[in-house]
Amino acid sequence: MAEVDRLRLTDASLVSDIASARVHFGDRTAVLVETVKLRRKAAVKFADASHWLFTDEALQQATAAPVAEHRARRLAGAIVHDATCSIGTELAALRHWADFTLGSDIDPVRLSMAEHNLGLGGPAVALCRADALRPVTADAVVVVDPARRSGARRRFDPRAYLPPLDELLDALRDRAYVVKCAPGIDFAVL
């Protein structure tokens, strides 16, 4: 990875950089190049993403560290369940403020990435595979950041979020929760 990270990987150098990397890494080159490029892109959102694992979509949807930190401080001392933890960006902040943190996600690949990313340092975070529409905690504040994009396209209808916002609000009806939504959504449609 360090060898690929030394490459410029700019638009002008990409073809020659990939050819050079392919000599040493063969069919693993694409994954290594993509990982390095995503980590460089992540540096805008996170102080130290140099060892984190990302997918392009997960990085696009990830909450920037200063925003996650601000929200985490508001939940100081609480028991918190991030029910859509994805790659762990919110949990990285929450674990320093909450009395206990649990992260869950329905996607096993993202959950594995969260396990790796959160294992790089800081207080431990419990993780499990679960559907946000069926929270696995009873006494925690449930934090949910539904996917509001499909590829590069934004979803403007909250019923098209993943999980759908109306179903999510029904599932959390009797719970303390925090849901991140796009600005300007029409709550009347829920």
Identify the notable features of this structure and list them briefly.
Rossmann fold; 8 helices; globular; two-stranded antiparallel sheet; five-stranded parallel β-sheet; 190 residues; alpha/beta
Short structural description:
By secondary structure, the chain is α/β, with parallel strands linked by helices. It has helices at 2-5, 14-25, 29-42, 56-61, 65-74, 89-97, 108-118, 165-171, and strands spanning 79-82, 100-105, 126-129, 141-144, 149-150, 153-154, 177-179.
How would you explain this protein's 3D organization?
The chain is of the alpha/beta class. The chain has 2 domains: 2-42, no CATH class; 61-189, 3-Layer(aba) Sandwich (Rossmann fold). Helix content is 38%, strand content 13%. The protein contains 8 helices and 7 strands, in the order H-H-H-H-H-E-H-E-H-E-E-E-E-H-E. It has helices at 2-5, 14-25, 29-42, 56-61, 65-74, 89-97, 108-118, 165-171; strands spanning 79-82, 100-105, 126-129, 141-144, 149-150, 153-154, 177-179. The strands form 2 sheets. A 5-stranded parallel sheet has the order 3-2-1-4-7, covered by helices on one side. A two-stranded antiparallel sheet has the order 5-6. Helix 5 (65-74) runs parallel beside helix 6 (89-97). The longest helix is centred in the first third of the chain and has 14 residues, at 29-42. The N and C termini lie far apart (46 Å). The model has no long low-confidence stretch (mean pLDDT 92).
